[in-house]
Amino acid sequence: MTTMRNLLIALCVGLTATLAAAEIGEIDVRSGPAATAAAESTNADRTALWIQTKTRITVVIVDAHGHRTGVDSSSYQTVQQIPNSDCEVNFVANRYPGEAHADAYERCTFQPAVSGTYTLNVTGLQDGPFQIDISPLSNNGSSEPSKQIEGLISAGERKTFHLRYDASPQAEMTVIEQKPHR
Description:
Blueprint: H1 2-21, H2 34-43, E1 48-54, E2 57-62, E3 68-71, E4 78-80, E5 85-94, E6 99-110, E7 116-124, E8 128-137, E9 147-153, E10 158-165, E11 174-178
Antiparallel strand pairs: 1-6, 1-8, 2-3, 2-7, 3-4, 5-6, 7-10, 8-9, 10-11
C-alpha cells in the first residue's frame, strides 16, 4: 500500500512539474526537418485548370501534343489522354422522346496544369443555350480570374475555342472562338 501511495505521489509531482513548465496557449509541433518542408513547398507545382460544362454540350480538350481529355461526342465515353487530367460526366436523359444523352454536366480537371494553348471542341447535344466555366490556379496556387463561355448551339453543331493558359501569377487567360470557314 505504501509503495502504491509513493508511486501516485511521484506521478502527481512529475505531472505538476510538467504542467508548470508549459504556458497556456503554447504549441510546439514538429513534423520533420523545417528546411526540407520549406524547399518542398516552394518547389511544389500548385497549378490547376478546371473546365466545367453545363447542359446541352460535350467538350473535348486537346493539348499541343494532340492528347485529348473530355467526352467523345460519338461514343459518349470519357477520354483522359492528357497527363494529369481527369474527366467526369453526368448525362441526363430526356424521357419524353427517349434521348439518353439530352444534357451533360461535364467536369475536366488538369492538376498540375501545363501552360500553353488548348483547343476546346464543343458538340451540341440539343438546341439551346450552353455554358462553359474555366477556372485556373497559377503556379503559386493563387486563384486567377475565371472565364465563362456562353452561347447558342444546335444538336450536332460543332464549335471550336482556343484557350491560352499561362501558369504565371496574374497572367491573363484568353479564350477565342474559331469562326467556321465559309
